[in-house]
Amino acid sequence: MTQVGRNDSCPCSSGKKYKKCCMNKVIPLDSLMEKELEQLKEELYNWSSNYYEVEQVLDGYFANQDIDEETLDFLTLIIVSWVIFSVTVTSGKTMVEEFVEEKKSRASHRSSVLALLEQWKNTAPSFASVVSIKIGEWIEIEDVFSSKQSKIIWEEGDEILNVGSLLIGHLLPFGTFESYFPFYVEITDDNESQSIISLLHELFKKSDKKDSTEFVRELYPDLLMELVVGTKQSLTDFIEWDKPSYQEVMELFLQKNVGLISGNEQFIENVIVLWSIFCEKEKPIIRKVEVYASMLHYFMVLIHDEYVTQKEIAEKYGVSVHAMVRALDKWDNVLREEIPAFLAGESVDGENAMLEGKDISPAEQAEKQIHSKKKNKKELKQTAADLIMQAYGASPKQQLKLIKQALELDEDFADAYTMLGDSQTDPHKALYYYEQGIEAGKRALGEAFFKNAENLKDMWLHFEARPFLRAKFNYGQVLFSLGRVKEAVANWWEILSMNEMDNQGVRYVLFQALIVNGESLEAKNLILKYEEEETMEGAYNLVLVEILMRSDRQKIDELLSIAKKVNPYVLDYLTKKKKLPNKIPTAYRFGSEEQAMIYVAEFGYLWDAIPDTIRKRFILSYS
Fold this sequence. Notes:
Blueprint: H1 31-47, H2 52-62, H3 69-86, H4 95-106, H5 111-120, E1 125-134, E2 138-143, E3 149-153, E4 166-174, E5 177-187, H6 190-206, H7 212-228, H8 244-256, H9 265-282, H10 289-303, H11 310-317, H12 321-334, H13 338-342, H14 362-371, H15 377-391, H16 396-409, H17 414-422, H18 427-445, H19 447-451, H20 466-481, H21 485-498, H22 506-516, H23 520-529, H24 536-548, H25 553-566, H26 570-574, H27 593-608, H28 612-618
């Protein structure tokens, strides 16, 4: 940057000499450099939209939260900012690290800008008090842990802050100054500010962290959720864990269930204490924290009498059902005495096997109930549910025994029939069991449920209806595999009429069935109904439909161009330039080659049915 002399004209174009104008102002960055950095801030935030990890974290924090749209948008900015700087992606790096490396590789910025950009990689959340203000120029702040003072640029339009206010956010180096990304959260009340600062110091002392920066990095999203939404998550009862992995298990469990904490604070605190006792007694060697976190989630579901399948829970954490169930067995054995004592105040079934029947297994309890004269319907249904959950991790022979026991207790248990269908190698036998599951689901829900039009709009929101929908979905898949395509189409349309939100992903299998059945226009309308033209699946499937409908070349070319922008790798596999690997990846980033492989593995056979002459005409020129 060129040095401006004292008697030179001021570069701000005021017409005055530099010494009479801006020389004594404290802002040393020229306007061009500041503008460039501001542009990079915006680009960095937009960069995060390329990562599926962002959606995973947001889902974890906002699931089941009753938040108005304005607050949700505000919280999304906060959480996404934390994800950008603190969450590692598939490469093992953070998003900001990949962003900086990409910018450096292009060398499209000045070296001074790139040097500042390099410092952004170490950005962590900041809690700082306002110590002084120069209106229109800068705000001086002091970090509540390190007492380091720094100045942030006064942005045009900024509200006038109060000395003593607490500012929370991510501070980016801007040379001599710093700038919040994308904004700061201000706590103006003195008592609240001091309360938060005292809590932070108390929690830091109780933690096993020596570095306050790392401590704040971990705590940040939960504390901000607490401040904005009021989740009332207990942060003061953190326990000193013997191993970091023990704490990681609890943190993952809390993260995945943050939406359920409000109203269940005492239960969550009990789980934390139970987990600490379990770790102290068992001293487990934890190779994968997700296994034990999923086990805690499963335990919570059992206690609160919610019906979520083992498979759903296991998939949420990316573990096997077998591993999760084995962990729960160990948990039950180690905490045989503690669980009833800690959960005595919970509002659960007093005779629940998880509380009072710890000395017998669900299977043994089932035998006892089957041969007893007691006919408590709710109790029988709960034991049947426990049996089915246990069956997921059992051997085929034991699984069949448990399913039969469950059906003896509750003949309307649709998921039991669905599991029997899943275990069949003969599709006709599978079809029979899925039919039985559908009928059982109908009986369990009752005629009144289906007569209420409100229930049929978003049926998936009714947990008791999910077994019926699961059986019906699988029934359609077997129909499709047997070549009974029209029946499968009718079945899946019926599911969508009951659950337009399509939580099961029915539209993707229905699309395939419509194409096979020659209903290209209906397949196109299905894509448009769910507004998926700009998703990878929707963009390429729309091209496929237009080709099959013999649309004009210009229209298809335009759609192909759009699809290629969404994911350029798909065409290499559709044109056979590349072969799919034997093992299809399960994780991907939007626009990545892994995502393309997943698409072609699922939809490629529909493209293969297009005659080669037509394929070459429309596709090869774009590959």
